[in-house]
Automatic annotation (TrEMBL):
<dbReference type="InterPro" id="IPR019587">
    <property type="entry name" value="Polyketide_cyclase/dehydratase"/>
</dbReference>
<dbReference type="Pfam" id="PF10604">
    <property type="entry name" value="Polyketide_cyc2"/>
</dbReference>
<protein>
    <submittedName>
        <fullName>Polyketide cyclase/dehydrase</fullName>
    </submittedName>
</protein>
<dbReference type="InterPro" id="IPR023393">
    <property type="entry name" value="START-like_dom_sf"/>
</dbReference>
């Protein structure tokens, strides 16, 4: 099992950050890594994410909503067709810091047989994508949006950790 964990402090309430996270139609306006999300964030429902990769291509990933705790947590899961080959769990979590705002955590756990084939560079690239989204989310919520951040180009886009996807 491999994990990528990132966090960022945001000077807004968890409710304000949650509103931005759940506004799927607006993702293309601010999110440098997730171009689009289709679906409803309700347990058991499926979400289709269109990711923007560092090389400019897009990739479609499908997740099932595992948990929704409004203003606190959105947990998504995906797995390969055959059990044990590849499983991903992606979590967006908000922890209140009172008058200071909140901390946004973005985490992904990758497990299964195929996960051992993903090199360290794949997880480094994943961390960079999470950090780019975290920074853009903070800017969007705090009203200090910078121009869209461009991610560094990597030749290894880690298809082993992307799971249930199609290249566009």
């Amino acid at each position: 099992m491999r994990q990528v964990k990132t966090s960022i402090d945001i000077a807004c309430s968890p409710g304000e950050v949650w509103r931005v996270l759940m506004d799927f139609p607006a993702y293309a306006e601010w999110n440098p890594t997730i171009q689009q999300i289709d679906g409803v964030a309700m347990p058991g429902h499926r979400l289709r994410l269109i990711l923007t990769l560092p090389n400019g291509r897009t990739r479609t990933v499908r997740f099932r909503v595992a948990k929704v705790d409004v203003r606190r947590e959105l947990r998504l899961r995906t797995s390969a067709m055959l059990p044990g080959l590849l499983r991903r769990e992606h979590v967006f979590r908000l922890i209140s810091r009172g008058a200071m705002g909140c901390t946004f955590y973005q985490e992904e756990e990758v497990s299964g047989l195929f996960s051992i084939f993903a090199g360290e560079s794949a997880f480094t690239a994943l961390r960079q994508r999470f950090e780019a989204m975290n920074t853009a989310l903070k800017a969007r919520c705090e009203g200090t949006e910078p121009p869209m951040l461009l991610l560094p180009h990597h030749d290894h886009d880690a298809p082993a950790i992307e799971g249930n996807e199609t290249a566009a």
